[in-house]
Amino acid sequence: MRAIILVLSVVLAACDRPPVTAEPPPPPPQRPSAVADAPAPSAAALPADVEAQRANAETCEHFAGEEPYDADRLREINAALADTCKPLKAALPGLKAKYADDPAVTEVLAAWEEIAQAYGD
């Protein structure tokens, strides 16, 4: 008799639980990224003389992150840094003075200055 009561208790307890679903719970909400949400000035928004330095800034940053896996690659990286970072570093003071009143341009130049200062020697 005890076995029947125990079995009935287990069956009734199982019936009282909500059904198990195969769907996983929804993912937690994503926090917005400050970088992704920040408006970046478009190429059309930058003055031509600032835009002319964009290739130097991008190439300087690219080669600064390259791995010199052998002596030839090290020479190639150093030549690319000299060809791009040094001219960028030389152009920045004049551009910063010229566009000191333009916050969007000043922001771009500040980012490029970090790159040029680090690798433009």
Question: What descriptors fit this protein?
Answer:
121 residues; single chain; mainly alpha
Low-confidence stretches: 30-39
Shape: elongated
What would the average pLDDT be, to the nearest integer? 77
Computed structural class: mainly alpha
What summary fits the major beta sheet? none
Tally of alpha and pi helices? 6
| Share of helix, binned | 55-70%
Kindly state the number of beta strands. 0
Based on CA atoms alone, the radius of gyration comes out at: 30 Å
Order of helices and strands: HHHHHH
Distance between the termini: 91 Å
Strand content: under 5%
Q: What is the topology?
A:
Layout: H1 2-16, H2 34-37, H3 48-51, H4 54-64, H5 71-98, H6 103-119
Helix pairs in contact: 4-5, 4-6, 5-6
Structure description:
The protein has helices spanning 2-16, 34-37, 48-51, 54-64, 71-98, 103-119. The protein has 121 residues and is mostly helical. It has a domain at 43-121. The longest helix is centred in the last third of the chain and has 28 residues, at 71-98.
